[in-house]
Amino acid sequence: MREAYLIPETLEEATALLARYQGRARVVGGGTDYFVDEAHNGAPVLIDVTRLRGLREIREEHGYVFIGCGVTHAQIAASALLQQSGTALVEACGQIGGPQVRNVATLAGNIAHALPAADGTLALLALGGEIQVAWHAEGELRAEWWPLARAFKGPGQSAVDSTRQIIAAMRFKPTGAGEASAFARVMRPQGVALPIMGVAARLKFDAEGRIEAAAIATGPAGPVPFRAVQTEAFLIGRMLDEATLDEAAQVLLGEVHVRTSPHRATAAYRRAVLPVLLRRALTQCATRAQRTLAIHER
Ligand SMILES: Cc1cc2nc3c(=O)[nH]c(=O)nc-3n(C[C@H](O)[C@H](O)[C@H](O)COP(=O)(O)OP(=O)(O)OC[C@H]3O[C@@H](n4cnc5c(N)ncnc54)[C@H](O)[C@@H]3O)c2cc1C
């Protein structure tokens, strides 16, 4: 039975409310995951964090791109700043659900739900993202930045305790000259379930066109959103030619753990589409990175 649905205006107020209810209240964003499953985890008090001052926007701050917890997927998909500095996120969030879902669902909620195939989460992981976790202790607002990977304990299990902590914001370093990101996925056409497979990549190229830095995230490829560290290491120092793309796909298939899920796809199908998605994401990165150099040379 719901006792209250509270809409605080500041982060301090929101964390103080969580502390006051001592585990009986739960943070909620757009509610697109929470209300689907409320019968299981209904909390007596909900604290809506989509209207907190200063946390409803996307901005550049101290050399990072900063995204507040109230920011929706629709805002991300329409952001010119993100299109330029974190394209993978625009592509991932722009494909989540349909317009109704994207208009209310948040990236913070996508992360807190902790599913290994969550689109926005995979994109932020490849971008090298961090989350700001906030809570109340000894009468004060406390907050610290975590690397995104620290947020996940298992499928649907977050290290952020949404009855005591709030993901207040996300941030990442913007892509610069010779650098770009991309996201590719396969999904059933009705678009109301989780993706069959997704790949996000961030690549940086040196002056000779060799890969200088690589980050690849994919899912569902394990119990938590998966960083493909072996594939990343393989790519460093190489040109992104046909041989590299083929070999990278083999390395990736060697390090992921894909399985059959009854409503989505077989493991064999997932293994068949993974190289296609990897190729798509990496070649998009290369094309976009080339464009950034052309812009800088002008
Ligand atoms: C029809 C439909 C289609 C969908 N399609 C996709 C898809 O294609 N790809 C995809 O990845 N997802 C999809 N989803 C899942 C969902 O929309 C996303 O995961 C969304 O980003 C969740 O955000 P939200 O703000 O609605 O989270 P909520 O439902 O509000 O919350 C989800 C969980 O996170 C916690 N939480 C929320 N915000 C915070 C916060 N700031 N700090 C701490 N804890 C928090 C809540 O307590 C809850 O446990 C779909 C959902 C529906 C209903």
Give a nutshell description of this structure:
This protein is an alpha+beta fold and 298 residues long.
List the SSEs and their pairings.
Elements: E1 4-6, H1 11-21, E2 25-28, H2 38-41, E3 45-48, E4 58-61, E5 64-68, H3 73-77, H4 80-85, H5 87-93, H6 99-104, H7 107-112, H8 119-126, E6 130-137, E7 140-147, E8 152-154, E9 157-158, E10 166-172, E11 179-186, E12 197-205, E13 211-219, E14 226-227, H9 229-235, H10 242-255, H11 267-297
Parallel strand pairs: 1-3, 2-3
Antiparallel strand pairs: 4-5, 5-10, 6-7, 6-10, 8-9, 11-12, 12-13, 13-14
Helix pairs in contact: 5-8, 9-10, 10-11
The chain binds flavin-adenine dinucleotide.
Residues 26-34, 36, 49, 69, 96-97, 101, 105-106, 108-110, 112-113, 118-119, 160, 162, 166-167, 192, 194-195 line the site of flavin-adenine dinucleotide (FAD).
